[in-house]
Amino acid sequence: MPTIRTTLSAVAVAGGLTASALGIGAAVAGAQPPPPPLPAEQGEPVPAWAPPKPAEVWNGKPVVWFSGWGGRWGVWINGAFMPLTSNPVTGGG
């Protein structure tokens, strides 16, 4: 004969499994990356204080200016920005 404790444990486990299968209580965490410029191949307008462009293309992708993270030159690959220069404002990464 099952005890009350065994029955309640089984009900709690079944309820937890059902809730997780339905996605109840699931939260999305994490920082969202900045969206790429539209269209990414054209980049953004280059400010007058920007350092010189390091190259026209890198690995077949056009080198463009992106104002995120203080501004830097880089390329868009698969929707992610890969910087090729350091931050000209702070001189660092």
N-C termini distance = 67 Å
Largest sheet: 3 strands, antiparallel
Shape field: rod-shaped
Number of domains: 1
Q: What strand order characterises the main sheet?
A: 3-4-5
SSE pattern: HEEEEE
Distinct helical segment count = 1
Radius of gyration: 25 Å
Total strands: the figure is 5
Uncertain runs are none
Give the averaged pLDDT, no decimals.
76
Q: What class do helices, strands and sheet pairing give?
A: alpha+beta
Keywords: Signal
What are the salient characteristics of this protein?
alpha+beta; two-stranded antiparallel sheet; rod-shaped
Report on this structure:
With 93 residues, the chain is an alpha+beta fold. It has one domain. It is 20% helix and 18% strand. The chain has one helix at 4-22; strands at residues 57-58, 61-62, 64-66, 72-77, 80-83. The protein has a three-stranded antiparallel sheet, with no helix packed on it. Strand 4 (72-77) and strand 5 form a beta hairpin. It is rod-shaped. Residues 1-31 form the signal peptide. Residues 29-50 are annotated as: Disordered. Keywords: Signal.
Write a brief structural summary.
Keywords: Signal. The protein is an alpha+beta fold. It contains 1 helix and 5 strands, in the order αβββββ.
Secondary-structure blueprint of this entry?
Layout: H1 4-22, E1 57-58, E2 61-62, E3 64-66, E4 72-77, E5 80-83
Antiparallel strand pairs: 1-2, 3-4, 4-5
